[in-house]
Write a structure and sequence with these properties.
Elements: E1 2-5, H1 9-19, H2 25-43, E2 49-55, E3 61-67, E4 72-78, H3 82-91, E5 96-97, E6 99-104, E7 111-117, E8 126-130, E9 133-134, H4 138-149, E10 154-162, H5 164-173, E11 178-184, E12 187-188, E13 194-195, H6 201-206
Parallel strand pairs: 1-11, 4-5, 4-6, 4-8, 8-10, 9-10, 10-11
Antiparallel strand pairs: 2-3, 6-7, 12-13
Bound molecules: 1-O-pyrophosphono-5-O-phosphono-alpha-D-ribofuranose (PRP), uracil and magnesium ion.
Function: Catalyzes the conversion of uracil and 5-phospho-alpha-D-ribose 1-diphosphate (PRPP) to UMP and diphosphate.
Protein name: Uracil phosphoribosyltransferase
Pathway: Pyrimidine metabolism; UMP biosynthesis via salvage pathway; UMP from uracil: step 1/1
């Protein structure tokens, strides 16, 4: 797996605000969405374009660039991935959405899958997974397994914060996947939470703390 740590002042500033204990759900959601937007800008840098002819403002035909092919399906991982979805879709509004639901068992830290509705032509699309946190990596590995079983060949992921332990686990399981992260933190605590981290992103986004 290639990890692209997008080191940008806007991202550093917004991730700093996300880390604060008192950040409200409203502010957390807005910031998660904005960081999702900025990561999408980077992750779509290599999309291919093709020249097409249109009528320009003078009435003469001109050639413009258009994104080529079947493009992208965005894959938010329930619940917390929904907090980044608006920001992602602002830049790629025509993307199809493939929702997957997984939660992490708090005792075993193993992912439990409970829902998936993946687009039928996922074999012809790039999957762009969105989830705020990459901790042990179990949830991401299970999601990539699921997408590959359904025929997906090109997979990328966007994360607000990743732990070195999770990056190592996903690199070993799925070396062909590229992820874009706004921050790489120090480590996991004994409950599998990222330090310094953001806390429980799903609870913060949905106000269920
Ligand atoms: O890398 P891992 O150790 O698997 O942990 C990461 C997962 O944990 C969080 O979800 P959570 O299980 O809290 O579900 P939620 O989004 O419904 O709160 C997070 O949004 C990731 O999906
Ligand atoms: O730090 C963490 C780890 C997993 N899930 C979260 O929401 N936060
Ligand atoms: Mg959670």
């Amino acid at each position: 797996m290639t990890v692209k740590h997008i080191d940008h002042p806007l991202l550093r500033h917004k991730v700093g605000l996300l880390r604060a204990k008192g950040t409200s759900s409203k502010d957390f959601r807005e910031l998660a969405s904005e960081v999702g937007n900025l990561l999408t800008y980077e992750a779509t840098r290599d999309l291919q374009t093709e020249k097409v002819s249109i009528e320009g403002w003078t009435g003469e035909p001109i050639k413009i660039d258009k994104i080529k092919g079947k493009k992208i399906t965005v894959v938010p991982i329930l619940r917390a991935g929904l907090g980044m979805l608006d920001g992602v879709l602002q830049l790629i509004p025509n993307a199809k959405i493939s929702v997957v639901g997984l939660y992490r068992n708090e005792q075993t830290l193993q992912p439990v899958a409970y829902f998936d509705k993946v687009v039928k032509d996922v074999d012809q699309r790039t999957a762009l997974i969105v989830d705020p946190m990459l901790a042990t990596g179990g949830t991401l590995i299970a999601t990539i397994d699921l997408l590959k079983q359904k025929g997906c060949k090109r997979i990328m992921g966007l994360f607000l914060v990743a732990a070195p332990e999770g990056i190592a686990a996903v690199t070993e399981a799925h070396p062909d996947v590229d992820i874009y992260v706004a921050a790489i933190d120090e480590r996991l605590n004994d409950k599998g939470y990222i330090l310094p981290g953001l806390g429980d992103a799903g609870d913060k986004i949905f106000g269920t703390r």
